[in-house]
Design goal:
The protein is an alpha/beta fold and 251 residues long. It contains eleven helices and eight strands. The protein has an eight-stranded mixed β-sheet, sandwiched between helices. It is globular and about 50 Å long.
Length: 251
């Protein structure tokens, strides 16, 4: 355990948390700004297995924030998950990395998540986030939402059957053109780094059973500030209340 000695010495982490992390399978939906930082941190911390899905290839404009890639990856147009897996193997050979070179959809989400104990959101596609929420609530799998744009971000753990889900926050899916995205608003790499640090912390706390469901974290790296907001479960929530899984069932 000398490799992880520094994190083992942190109060609230310790050997039991390390054991849970080292035996966990975490599924990451997306391998861009959020996903590469998630994978890097979890690999360095000693997660057991990472399963990463993304259908895109590396491009030059990814490099300012997507830390697993370099210029050669962009020049060759490598699939993101292939380049990421190669890099992660040089960081920690003990971590099993399972790249899936396709976008997560309602047709393949069950096969992708499989036996994972947790799902991390690393997509900027609103419909996919609602799909993740439906699937995880329906199967009782914890997941952690993260959204970033410009200098701002938001992190929200969903721990079914306890606490609220994403549709308690957003009962109806916003139109894609109405949501803040990196493509429209740009993104600072520092925003990604802070959001993922908070997101992975929530993931670890879910694993060691100290997470507090309903804790929504809002952040701004430019101000700077991080603010926790309590979100309560909505009894009439179409997903966790009425158990109507519209995005999973395609209704």
């Amino acid at each position: 355990m000398t490799r992880y000695a520094k994190q083992l010495n942190v109060e609230g982490f310790g050997e039991e948390t390390q054991k849970r992390l080292s035996s966990a399978t975490v599924a990451i939906v997306g391998c861009g700004g959020l996903g590469t930082w998630q994978a890097e941190l979890l690999t360095r911390m000693g997660v057991g297995t990472l399963r990463i899905a993304d259908g895109d290839a590396v491009s030059l404009d990814n490099l300012h924030r997507q830390i697993l890639f370099d210029e050669r990856d962009a020049e060759e147009g490598l699939p993101k998950v292939v380049a990421a897996a190669a890099r992660l193997k040089t960081v920690n050979r003990n971590v099993r990395v399972q790249p899936v070179a396709e976008r997560v959809t309602r047709e393949n989400i069950a096969a992708f998540v499989g036996d994972a104990q947790m799902v991390l959101d690393a997509t900027d596609h609103t419909a996919t986030r609602f799909l993740i929420n439906d699937f995880c609530v329906s199967r009782g799998v914890p997941w952690v939402y993260a959204g970033v744009s410009g200098a701002e971000g938001m992190v929200f753990p969903v721990v079914p059957p306890d606490g609220p889900c994403l549709r308690c926050v957003y009962p109806e899916r916003p139109a894609e053109e109405e949501t803040a995205t990196c493509a429209v608003n740009g993104i600072l790499p520092m925003t990604v780094a802070l959001a993922v640090s908070l997101q992975v912390t929530q993931a670890v706390r879910i694993l060691n059973r100290t997470a507090v469901p309903g804790t929504l974290l809002r952040l701004n790296v430019w101000e700077p500030r991080v603010r926790a907001v309590e979100v309560r479960r909505v009894p009439g929530c179409p997903c966790c209340g009425e158990r109507r899984f519209d995005f999973l069932n395609g209704t």
